[in-house]
């Protein structure tokens, strides 16, 4: 039978209260960031998919900028993207090519007077059928 030394048992007590507090604060902060910033990135992915889905749309090269913007607004409305202003989309025509530039930023209140600013910039060149 082994005899356990008291000093080796004292070293195996587990995490201290301070260590547990630091771990809870770290993981709580990480969870707060994910909850606050995750939907913004998901909305951006949805915006990208809606714009990429315009590729090959029938009559896209004949549409005016207002019609293209209306088509994009419909796609974003169907995909439940709410906080996005379609005025942040620049549409240019270059012959048969339609160049769509999206440049916007999203500001979120993280806590108290600490805010986050996320900037997105995308550019697409498309040709309709």
How much strand content do the residues show? 25-35%
N-to-C SSE series?
HHHEEE
What's the total number of strands?
A: 3
Tell me the structural class. alpha+beta
Name the strands of the widest sheet in spatial order: 1-2-3
General shape: elongated
Total number of helices: 3
Helix content: 40-55%
Question: What can be said about the biggest beta sheet?
Answer: 3 strands, antiparallel
**If you average the pLDDT, what whole number results?**
87
Low confidence ranges: none
Distance between the termini: 84 Å
Tell me the Rg in angstroms. 26 Å
Blueprint of the fold:
Layout (H helix, E strand, L loop, with lengths): L5 H5 L6 H36 L12 H14 L10 E6 L2 E15 L2 E14 L2
From the structure above, extract its key features.
alpha+beta, three-stranded antiparallel beta sheet
General description of the model:
It contains 3 helices and 3 strands; from the N terminus they run H-H-H-E-E-E. It has 129 residues and is α+β, with helices and mostly antiparallel strands. It has a domain of 90 residues. The protein has a 3-stranded antiparallel β-sheet with strand order 1-2-3. The longest helix has 36 residues.
């Amino acid at each position: 039978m082994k005899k356990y030394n008291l000093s080796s048992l004292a070293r195996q007590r587990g995490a201290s209260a301070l260590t547990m507090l630091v771990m809870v604060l770290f993981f709580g902060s990480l969870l707060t960031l994910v909850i606050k910033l995750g939907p913004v990135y998901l909305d951006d992915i949805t915006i990208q998919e809606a714009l990429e889905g315009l590729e090959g749309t029938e009559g896209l090269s004949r549409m005016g900028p207002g019609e293209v913007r209306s088509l994009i607004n419909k796609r974003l409305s169907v995909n439940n993207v709410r906080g996005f202003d379609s005025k942040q989309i620049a549409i240019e025509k270059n012959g048969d090519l339609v160049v769509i530039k999206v440049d916007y930023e999203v500001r979120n209140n993280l806590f108290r007077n600490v805010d986050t600013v996320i900037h997105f910039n995308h550019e697409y060149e498309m040709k309709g059928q």
